[in-house]
C-alpha cells in the first residue's frame, strides 16, 4: 500500500492544517503587524495624511525600536487560535467539499477542475472565517495598538481574554461578530485562489517533469506562486477588513452599537477609493506580501510534509499489524 491509499479523515486533515498554520504565523506575524498599521495610516485622509511609517520595513524597524519583540509580535496568541480554526477549516474541508462538488456534477473526485476547486476554496475559507471572526477582530485591534506611534483608532487590551470580555460587555455577542461580512469576503477571495493555484502549479510541475512529486522544492515553488496570487486578489478586501474591525463605534438611541466610519465592507471600499484613490486600497501591500508569501509557503509546505510524515507513520502501523 502507498501513502496515497492510507485512510485520512477530515479531522486528521484539520489537525495537520492547524499545526502547519501555527508554525507559519510565528514567522509571518511581524509583517502582519506592519501591514495592519500601514493600512490604518492616513485613514480617509486626502493625500494620505501624516505618514508615521514610510514603508513596510520602516514600520517593522520603528515598531521594534519603540516596542521591542513584544511590539512586532502583538496579537500572536489570538493569531495562533485563529490560524488553527481558519487554516484547519480551509485545509481540512477543502478536499471533502471539492470531492462532493465533483461527485454532484458526475466527475471523478480526483479531477482538478478550476470551477470546483475555486468554489471549494471559497466555501472552506468562508467556514474558517466565520468560526474565527472574534479572534481575528481582537488580533487586528491588538496589532494596531501602539503606545509610541499610534495610527488609527486605538484599543488597549491586557490579553486575548480581556479583549473578548471587554467587547462582549460593551457590545454583546454582536460585537464579537463585527466585520464578519468583511472577513468572509476577504477570506473567500483569498481561499478561492490559494489552494487551486497551489495544486495547479504543483500538478503542472510534476506532470511536465520539472520537479518530482514529493520534493521540498516542489512544495516551495507551488507555495510561492500561490502566495503571489492570494496577495493580488485579497489586498483590497484585507484593507477593508482591517478598517472595519478597528473603526470607532457609537451607540444609537435604540441601543444598537454601530461603526462611525463604515456601514459594511463595500461602503469601506467605496469611501477608501473615493478619498484616498485606488492606491488607498493597496496600502500595506508590500507588508502584505512579506506576510503572505512566507506564510503561504510555510503553511502549505509544512502541511504537505506533516501529512506525508503522518501517512507514513500510519502506513508503518498498518504494515506491522498485518
At a glance:
The protein is built from 11 helices and 2 strands; from the N terminus they run ααααααααββααα. The protein has 322 residues and is mostly helical.
Strand content: under 5%
- With strands numbered from the N-terminus, the spatial order across the biggest sheet is 1-2
Helix fraction, binned, reads: over 70%
Distance between the terminal alpha carbons, to the nearest Å? 12 Å
Poorly predicted parts: none
Over all CA atoms, what is the radius of gyration?
21 Å
Give me the strand/helix succession.
HHHHHHHHEEHHH
Mean pLDDT: 88
List the helices and strands and how they pair.
Layout: H1 10-40, H2 56-72, H3 76-104, H4 114-144, H5 160-171, H6 173-176, H7 180-207, H8 216-246, E1 249-251, E2 257-259, H9 265-276, H10 278-281, H11 285-321
Antiparallel strand pairs: 1-2
Helix pairs in contact: 1-2, 1-3, 1-11, 3-4, 4-7, 7-8, 8-9, 8-11
What does this structure look like?
The chain has helices at residues 10-40, 56-72, 76-104, 114-144, 160-171, 173-176, 180-207, 216-246, 265-276, 278-281, 285-321; strands at residues 249-251, 257-259. It is mainly alpha-helical and 322 residues long. A two-stranded antiparallel ribbon has the order 1-2. Helix 1 (10-40) packs across helix 2 and helix 4 packs across helix 7. The longest helix has 37 residues, at 285-321. The chain is globular and about 65 Å long. The mean pLDDT is 88.
List keywords for this structure.
two-stranded antiparallel sheet; globular; about 75% helix; about 325 residues; mainly alpha
Amino acid at each position: 500500500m502507498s501513502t496515497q491509499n492510507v485512510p485520512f479523515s477530515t479531522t486528521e486533515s484539520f489537525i495537520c492544517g492547524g499545526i502547519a498554520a501555527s508554525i507559519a504565523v510565528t514567522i509571518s506575524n511581524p509583517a502582519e503587524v506592519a501591514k495592519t498599521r500601514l493600512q490604518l495610516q492616513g485613514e480617509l485622509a486626502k493625500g494620505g495624511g501624516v505618514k508615521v511609517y514610510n514603508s513596510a520595513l520602516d514600520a517593522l524597524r520603528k515598531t521594534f525600536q519603540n516596542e521591542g519583540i513584544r511590539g512586532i509580535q502583538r496579537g500572536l496568541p489570538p493569531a495562533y487560535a485563529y490560524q488553527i480554526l481558519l487554516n484547519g477549516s480551509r485545509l481540512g474541508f477543502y478536499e471533502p467539499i471539492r470531492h462532493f462538488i465533483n461527485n454532484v456534477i458526475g466527475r471523478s473526485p480526483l479531477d482538478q477542475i478550476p470551477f470546483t476547486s475555486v468554489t471549494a476554496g471559497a466555501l472552506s475559507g468562508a467556514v474558517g472565517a466565520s468560526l474565527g471572526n472574534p479572534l481575528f477582530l481582537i488580533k487586528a485591534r491588538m496589532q494596531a495598538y501602539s503606545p509610541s506611534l499610534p495610527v488609527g483608532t486605538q484599543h488597549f487590551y491586557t490579553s486575548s481574554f480581556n479583549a473578548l470580555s471587554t467587547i462582549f460587555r460593551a457590545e454583546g455577542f454582536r460585537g464579537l461578530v463585527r466585520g464578519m461580512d468583511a472577513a468572509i469576503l476577504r477570506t473567500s477571495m483569498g481561499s478561492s485562489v490559494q489552494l487551486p493555484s497551489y495544486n495547479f502549479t504543483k500538478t503542472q510541475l510534476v506532470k511536465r517533469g520539472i520537479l518530482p512529486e514529493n520534493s521540498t522544492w516542489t512544495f516551495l515553488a507551488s507555495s510561492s506562486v500561490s502566495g503571489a496570487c492570494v496577495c493580488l486578489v485579497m489586498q483590497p478586501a484585507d484593507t477593508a477588513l482591517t478598517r472595519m474591525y478597528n473603526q470607532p463605534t457609537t451607540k444609537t438611541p435604540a441601543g444598537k452599537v454601530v461603526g462611525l466610519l463604515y456601514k459594511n465592507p463595500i461602503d469601506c471600499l467605496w469611501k477608501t477609493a473615493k478619498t484616498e484613490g485606488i492606491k488607498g486600497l493597496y496600502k500595506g501591500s508590500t507588508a502584505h506580501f512579506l506576510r503572505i508569501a512566507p506564510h503561504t509557503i510555510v503553511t502549505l509546505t509544512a502541511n504537505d510534509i506533516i501529512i506525508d510524515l503522518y501517512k507514513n507513520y500510519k502506513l508503518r502501523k498498518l504494515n506491522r499489524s498485518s
